[in-house]
Amino acid sequence: MKRLLFASFFLFSALISFAQSQHCLAGRYSQDALFDSTDIQITTDVHYATSMRWPGTQMDSLWIDVYQPNPNIDPLEKRPLIVMVHGGAFLTGSRSDMAYFSMEMARRGFVTANITYRLGWNCAAQDFLGVCATCQGEAAKFRVAMYRGSQDTRAALRFLTAHANDYGIDTSAVFLQGESAGSINALHTVFLQQPEVQQWCANCVDEVGLLDTTGNSFGPMPNVKGVINSC
Question: Cα separation of 226 and 201, whole Å?
Fold first, then answer.
């Protein structure tokens, strides 16, 4: 875990360069923690979207955990945001998997948010090394699952932008950090555009809708400044 955290700090050069131009407080956004873990305020189980499960038609509630320096301790009113996206092959995993990263980044002055996104693509998690790993007849569904993850991440970004004042977020300084499948999710969220979708996944829109029309009606999505691509 510490090695993964250390690897993430290679991405800090870009974040620090941007942050220092906007947020010039000594010791902030560096490799060394600015705050103790007891100085971090954690808000759990924040509902950000309700979306139709796929496969299936059940409606799923989606949640965020937000980590931020305690406003009573930190004099800064607005801070850069890092949205954390967990891994798990779009089958398993939980937003709590990113709790360590969220805490450590919040201790360095960022606001961090762990998100839940919809999982599953007609492939049992315990069979991942069988039919799932080789995508035997499931490749089209796997593409929909990846697309659906981007829908949810975009919905989370819209929600956090709309509620920026509640969490002290600087919406001009938003980053994504993904791990494994979460990295795929983060990269798609930033770079995949709706006109490209039909060529990559012909049935995605028919199955789950457009990129920015599910989960909630907040908008628009912020301009993401960078992606921390872990694993």
Answer: 25
